[in-house]
Amino acid sequence: MARLRLKKIESLIRREISDMIQKREIKDPRVGFVTVVSVEVTPDLRHAKVFITVLGDAKQLKSSFIGLKNAKGFIQGEIGNRLHLRFVPELEFLEDQGLTHAFHINELLCKIKAEYPVSEEVVAVEEEEEGEPEEHEEEQEFVDEEEPEEEKE
Fold first, then answer.
1. Sign (positive/negative) of CA torsion 91, 92, 93, 96?
2. Rounded Cα distance, 100 and 120, in Å
3. CA angle 62, 67, 69 (to 5 degrees)
4. Model-level pTM?
C-alpha cells in the first residue's frame, strides 16, 4: 500500500513541476524547453530525483539546469502548497539518459545491419513463416470449441 502512495506522489510531483514549466511560472529565462520525464521519491519522502530532458544542445541543457537549480526553492514551496504534504522532498534535477541511450543503441544496430546484410534467402524464409499459423493457435481453437451434447429421447 505504501508503494502505491509513493507512486501517486511521484506522479503528482511530476505533473506539478511540468505545469510550472509549461505555464511559465518559473520566471528564469534560462529554463528552456524542458520536459519532466519521471520523478523518483525516497520512501521517507525526504528526497526526490527529477529526471528531465531539454530540447536543444549541451549549452541549452546546462543553462536549463542552472535555471532549475536557482528556482528549486520556489518549486519546492509550490509543491508544498499545491500537494499539502507534511514533508516536501528536496529536489535534485538530473538528465534523463534514456533517450541518449536509445539513440546509441539505434546507431549500433544500424552499424551491425550495414556490416552484416541479410541475404534474400533469409528474408524469403521469414516471409513464408509469417503466413503459416502457429501450433499453439490451433490448439487454442480446439480447446474453445464445445462438443455438442447428444439429446436423449
1. negative
2. 33
3. 95
4. 0.67
* All residues at 6 or more sequence positions from 50 whose CB lies less than 8 Å from its CB, including other chains: 13, 14, 17, 36, 39, 91, 92, 93, 94
C-alpha cell at 153: 429421447
Q: Are strands 47-54 and 34-41 parallel, antiparallel or unpaired?
A: antiparallel
**With contact defined as beta carbons under 8 Å apart, do 45 and 9 qualify?**
yes
Along the chain (153 residues), what's the average pLDDT of each consecutive run of 10 residues?
A: 88 95 89 92 94 89 92 94 91 88 89 80 67 53 51 49
Q: Are 75 and 93 in contact (CB under 8 A)?
A: no
- 97: cell is 539518459
Residue whose C-alpha cell reads 490451433 in the numeric block: 138
The Cα–Cα gap between 109 and 116 comes to: 10
Could you give the CA distance from residue 16 to residue 84 in angstroms, rounded to a whole number? 12
Q: What share of the chain is helix, strand, coil (3-state, %, to 5)?
A: 55, 15, 30
Phi/psi of residue 127, nearest 5 degrees: -65, -40
